[in-house]
Amino acid sequence: MPNSHTAVPAAEPPGLNTVWLRVFLDVARHGSFTVAARTLGWTQSAVSRQISALESALGGGPLFDRLPRGVRLTEAGRTLVPHAEAVTESLRGAARELAELRAAAGGRLRFGAFATADAALVPHALAAFRARRPHVRVSREEGLSPVLLDRLTAGHLDLAVVSTTGRAPLETYALHHLLDETLYVAVPADHPLTAADGPVRLARLADADWIAGSSRPEGTLLDAAVRQGFRPRVAHVVAEWTAKQGYVAAGLGVTLVPALAAASLRPDVALLPVHPQDAPRRAVYAATVRGSSLMPAAQAFIGALREAAARIPG
Questions:
Q1: What is the three-class DSSP state of 26?
Q2: 138 forms bridges with which residues in the sheet?
Q3: Which DSSP category does 12 fall into?
Q4: Could you say which DSSP state residue 10 is in?
Q5: 65, 75, 3, 71: which is closest to 33 by C-alpha?
Q6: Which end of the chain is less enclosed by CB atoms within 10 A, N or C?
Q7: How confident is the model at residue 2 (pLDDT cuts 50, 70, 90)?
Q8: Position 103 confidence tier, pLDDT thresholds 50, 70, 90
Q9: Residue 192's beta-bridge partner residues?
Q10: Mean pLDDT of the chain
Q11: φ, ψ for residue 187 (rounded to 5)?
């Protein structure tokens, strides 16, 4: 037995110009092409063309009855009104939210940096940035480069100041080069090697006690020693740079110091440059997510970082 109900095929959505909907709502509100034209700053004929184009796009039926004085919505016109209002309000809401998003992002900077960068590079850059953009809300994190990169990928940071130490997977990020820094070995001021002429080979310190941020040299600056064929004896695990210098000054061992941390040297500690064959310069970058647009605050901060990096010796 044939079905007595005939299914209505789903209609394809018409290709509508949002300007047509705006004009349609103005005409419906005022009941007049003339008044709507005056409100929009258009000519009456331009308004009439927009309504005709909308009627054609919707199948050709009239949306307004043209009366001797003004116009009146047809049944089709009354049906269209709530849909046109929903579309235009949705677009206004989208524009508001996007404007708020741009304002929030443009007035916010979230960055992270590894500990040594916080010794001189980041403070100088941040001071210059705040002087130029005092209204930007800044939040900072400190951590190891791989951790900061994970935070960057997850969208918790806008940029991360990272280095090549620790085998951080830098290849998948947009890298803004800041500097290549020299590595030094810190020894007590009266250490015999202070009389050495030229850079020091790490092998000459193979029997020394070392002060490091981890008991395992892998993934730290002491990777350089491992690559030279000896495993440093880590006598003291100390994370903070000024504390490491205190241990060195007391004769408890030696430690490696990058150029970024060399600015605050104690007078009873000497820095000896490490031979470049033993410890190639490590690169320092401002990393961002590849392919993402940089907000003005992030762009400005990268510029401040580059200015500060130019003041780092070696």
A1: helix
A2: 109
A3: P
A4: P
A5: 71
A6: N
A7: very low
A8: low
A9: none
A10: 87
A11: -130, 160
- SS3 letters for 225-265? HHHCCCCCEEEEECCCHHHHHHHHHCCCCEEEEEHHHHHHC
- Return d(Cα 169, Cα 156) in angstroms, integer: 18
For the record, the structure tokens of 313 come out as 């010796």
Strand partners, 139: 110
- Write the DSSP assignment of 169-199 as a string of letters: -GGGEEEEEEEEE-EEEEEETT-GGGG-SSP
The CA distance from 234 to 223, in Å, is 12
Residue-wise pLDDT tens digits, 240-285? 888 999 999 999 999 988 888 887 788 999 999 988 888 778 889 9
| Crossing angle between the packed helical segments 44-57 and 33-40, to the nearest 10 degrees | 110
Place of tokens 């916010």: 108
Nearest to 282 by CA among 218, 198, 223: 223
Cβ neighbourhood burial of 226 (10 Å; 0-12, 13-18, 19+): middle
Higher local confidence (pLDDT), 314 or 77: 77
Which residue is listed with tokens 């789903």? 10
Residue 98, classed as helix, strand or coil, is helix
- Beta-strand runs (E) in 15-149: 64-66, 71-73, 108-113, 137-142
Taking a C-beta distance cutoff of 8 angstroms, is the pair 253, 236 a contact? yes
User: Could you tell me the two tokens for 109?
Assistant: 């900077």
User: What is the chain's percent helix, strand, coil content, to nearest 5?
Assistant: 45, 20, 35
Q: How far is 304 from 125, CA to CA, in rounded Å?
A: 5
Question: Are 271 and 185 within 8 A, CB to CB?
Answer: yes
